Amino acid sequence: MTTFVQLHLLTFVPPANLNRDDTGAPKSAIVGGETRLRLSSQSLKRAWRTSDVLAERLAGHLGSRTQRFGEEMVERLVGDGVAPDVALAATRKVIVAFGKPKGADDPKPARTEQLAFLSPDEKEEAVSLAAAFARGETIDDKAIAARVLKRADTAADIAMFGRMFADHPDFNREAAVQVAHAFTTHRVEIEDDFYTAVDDLNRREENVGAGFVGEAGFGSGVFYLYVCIDTGLLTTNLGGDLALARSAVGALVEAAATVAPNGKQASFASRVRASHILVEKGPDQPRTLAAAFAEGVSPRDPKGILTTSSERLVALRDAFAVAYGAGDTTAMEMRVGDPVTRSLADLVAFASDFGA
């Protein structure tokens, strides 16, 4: 039976626009009949995947999601003395494992039409195979994908967040980590910031107005985020490498607590960290605690929206335990400002300590 690690985080975000919609406004959702700010799971996962936290904790075990790896292959082959036209032809034969190559007459013929999520080992195998083609070796076209792509990951982020190859489904990966869209625990009004850009060399001889005017949406609130990690699937995806699976879980806990999407960061400096983190670990059926905020916290709550959100989160956790039974799940939490609280390091160690 697998062990599920569940993360529940409450994070206060000051005026910001971390994750924009197609109009440039902060993303939102209707929850409990009220407008809430929202951070998409896609934006959260990308922020974590590309963070310094994962780069440091999982060095050498991170993949790349790109259309451009073929260009790197060409550069490496040319650097090894292969003629540019031969290097390109060899590369185009190999990148069919990742997706449909751009047309031969395309300005970027070494790119694929689709993004491909590749591990370091797969990238090295692709370069090796392209070098073999450049030397005149042959291989059955149907065997190219099997030669390059792997059924077990050495890249922890692929194992955590999954991938899909439409033409080679045998090498797809089911995500071991489920990430919900974060949303505010209370109603939010999205506001507009009217701003101007002033021409520094305007001596007011022609006009006294601004050189540019515009608007930017923003909002603020306490966000609830839920993450569920299937540690059994994660370990399987990593080919049974339990040590790497534990490192991946620890890195993810730290990233979720300290890293957020960075939209409009220069304008709002919204560098945030979670104020309340609840980590649950055990074999019981996972469940979100989002229902704690189906009725939004009142902005006028005398205890404040952050304190009340924390109390609601714990109260619903306890109520579920009474209604459904406590089960075999254990928990650890950190509340910033609580003098007897656990630290983030404690939570990382707790979440990472699971068996095979």
Bin the strand percentage: 15-25%
Rounded to the nearest angstrom, the distance between the terminal CA atoms is 10 Å
The proportion of residues forming helix, as a percent range, comes to 25-40%
Biggest sheet, open or closed, and with what strands and sense? 9 strands, antiparallel
Number of strands: 11
- Poorly predicted runs are none
User: How large, in whole angstroms, is the Cα Rg?
Assistant: 24 Å
SSE class: alpha+beta
Apparent shape: flat
Helical run tally: 12
- Order of secondary-structure elements: EEEHHEHHEHHHEEEEHHHEHEH
Count of discrete structural domains: 2
Provide keyphrases for this structure.
356 residues; alpha+beta; 21% strand; nine-stranded antiparallel β-sheet; 2 domains; 12 helices; two-stranded antiparallel sheet
Structure characterization notes:
The chain is α+β, with helices and mostly antiparallel strands. It folds into two domains: 4-59 and 176-190 and 218-352, no CATH class; 65-154. 34% of the residues lie in helices and 21% in strands. It has helices at 41-49, 52-57, 69-79, 84-94, 120-134, 144-148, 156-161, 231-237, 242-258, 265-268, 305-324, 344-352, and strands spanning 4-16, 28-31, 34-39, 64-66, 116-118, 177-179, 182-184, 191-197, 212-230, 276-282, 330-335. The strands form two sheets. Strands 1, 2, 3, 6, 7, 8, 9, 10 and 11 form a nine-stranded antiparallel β-sheet that branches. A two-stranded antiparallel sheet has the order 4-5. The radius of gyration is 24 Å and the shape is flat. 40% of the residues are buried.
